[in-house]
Amino acid sequence: MQYEASPNRYEVEQLIGQGASALVFKGTYENNNVKHPVAIKTINLDKASQNIEQLQQETKLLAMCNHPNICPLYQSMVHQQYLWLIMPELQVSILDLLKTLQPIGFDELIIATIMYDVLQAINYLHQNGQIHRDIKLSNFLMDSQGNTLLSDFGVASFIRPFSNDIRSTFVGSPLYMAPEVANNKPYNQAADIWSFGICLYQLSHGNLPHENCQAMEALLRVIQHEPPKISSKRNFSKQFKELIDACLQKNPSERLNASQLLTMKFWTKRADRQQLIDTLKEYQVMRQPKPNAFQEQVDTANNILQSKQSVGLSSSNWNFDEEDPVVEKKPEEPAPQQIIEENDTDIVLSGVQKLVEEVKKLREENTKLKEENERFKDRLKMFMNQEE
Ligand SMILES: Nc1ncnc2c1ncn2[C@@H]1O[C@H](COP(=O)(O)OP(=O)(O)O)[C@@H](O)[C@H]1O
Ligand SMILES: [Mg+2]
């Protein structure tokens, strides 16, 4: 079935998630008087730095991705100042699953099943010359059959522009960032592999490395410290340690690539799908949705979808900084002021960028001083020669 780019055929019912610059709704698409369930993600273009034509071209690229472990994009459209992305409605993000069911980490069999799915998706993107750039647990979504799908490929680029294969723009979530990305150096597919390694760490421990640091501090630690090591108090298998090690190398060229990772021994022991489906069911019992929560956002979204006006540039209708929606969120988070908020990303990044610029300036000054010093020495030599 074709999902057409006609806003008024979509209707939202419930807010199911909220990211740094997007809201995700459960909703429907109407075709021949039948309503088909979909997930509808809206991104406020007032916050994006790309022009609309470029953005639409990129959504076409996304729509061409075709892999069983990549969440498909059915349709994308710009209506008013929002980009609307239409996708299948999946069951739960792996982040919410972890936080709700296993705050100190899943066992290796479950991790292997989930991450083998994700790794195949990453391998597909990398083989096609793409970089995901926002590999993190909230972008891994489970369907009703216990399969995990990688979502939001390319969406990070709507927030910030890019042009080359080797990119040097800051994108993604700081705690998952590879050292070369945190350090504003050019990067390639290996950056995704680092983030994949961080996800393995998070799934096995329940928390992220440097999770309790201030944002800047966390980024500096990623740049300056040795890669995170898994807890020695836990009984992790040798195969798991080897896998994490192969991902978390500070030098990107020393990380294995996705197809090499797929051949590692760790993947030979995986849980069967039924076990994943049971885990999903357990989650569905645990969470307690509030049916009428965020009704205001739902009403606003529907008003915009039904309105005739197409691309407009008026100011934001939604406050994206509102409290997190519901339900699936996170029983065991540390004190709020200690967490890196997604919304802090820009502040953090501009901070690090400033730092990097300052270091650059200092280096340049240093080079100048050295040159002057050399010249001075030369003159001194000449002077001494004349004296002799
Ligand atoms: N297709 C989907 N089906 C079900 N839930 C989704 C879907 N896409 C996103 N979500 C939920 O919405 C949340 C917010 O998504 P997003 O705006 O991409 O931010 P983030 O990935 O940073 O959490 C996700 O964490 C996930 O729980
Ligand atoms: Mg996402």
TrEMBL record:
Coiled coil: 352-386
Top EC class, one word: transferase
The reaction(s) this protein catalyses: L-seryl-[protein] + ATP = O-phospho-L-seryl-[protein] + ADP + H(+); L-threonyl-[protein] + ATP = O-phospho-L-threonyl-[protein] + ADP + H(+)
Binding site for ATP: 41
Protein's name according to its UniProt entry: non-specific serine/threonine protein kinase
Known EC number: 2.7.11.1
Gene3D superfamilies: Phosphorylase Kinase, domain 1, Transferase(Phosphotransferase) domain 1
High-level lineage: Eukaryota, Metamonada, Diplomonadida, Hexamitidae, Hexamitinae
Keyword ATP-binding annotated: yes
Domain Protein kinase: 10-267
